[in-house]
Design goal:
alpha+beta; 198 residues; 5 helices; single chain; 6-stranded antiparallel sheet; two-stranded antiparallel sheet; Alpha-Beta Plaits; disordered N terminus
Length: 198
């Protein structure tokens, strides 16, 4: 499944979520303060697609963050810890009225609500929600690194990100996502799923 519109508030291609009107009202008040960000979504426990779809629905229902575009779903090999099931991954392009740390806290709270529990580093999880990019901001703090520190190393991030934002420029590497993907040395499998229920 792929959700794609000309803009967040296109009447020709509305997002299929009830909170759309709520988000339009929010945007009319705060348009000057919103930022385009990219969020990585992943899951490898339980009903992976259901967890991803629920995360997308709750982000859309939040009233402060709206989805502009969404990549395809991808089946991917685990990264960093191999003794676990394969993941599904996708990337969301969003428009948000939250500051970076507020967005991080919102996503972490959403992970907890969807049943994520701490395991081994890079281990299995019901849902994983990562801020990949936040405008052209560069942030290094104990809580948050933007751009995501491992973005350039991960095919499961670069492939779906390249699908929806090939000419987006990494604010630190100063290279497009397409070029970063072309330069990636990662043999892990990243396979596009034709249908969400595969």
């Amino acid at each position: 499944m792929r959700l794609k519109g000309e803009g967040l508030f296109s009447h020709n291609k509305p997002l299929p979520f009830e909170p759309q009107i709520k988000w339009v009202f929010f945007h009319s008040l705060c348009a000057a303060m919103t930022v385009i960000a990219y969020i990585g979504v992943g899951s490898n426990q339980g009903d992976r697609h259901a967890h991803g779809a629920e995360a997308i629905a709750r982000i859309t229902a939040s009233g402060h963050t709206g989805i502009i575009d969404q990549s395809s779903w991808y089946l991917t090999e685990p990264w960093g810890y191999h003794d676990q099931d394969e993941f599904i991954n996708l990337v969301l392009k969003v428009e948000t009225g939250l500051a970076p740390l507020e967005l991080l806290r919102f996503l972490k709270e959403l992970e907890e609500k969807l049943g994520r529990q701490k395991t081994v580093p890079f281990g299995p999880r019901t849902i994983d929600l990562d801020i990949l990019l936040y405008g052209d901001r560069v942030i290094q703090s104990p809580e948050l690194s933007i751009p995501h520190g491992r973005l350039c190393e991960r095919g499961f991030v670069l492939v779906p990100l390249q699908e929806i934002a090939p000419q987006l420029v990494h604010p630190v590497q100063n290279r497009t996502i397409s070029r970063l993907l072309a330069e990636l040395d990662d043999g892990r499998r990243v396979v596009k799923l034709e249908r969400e229920n595969q």
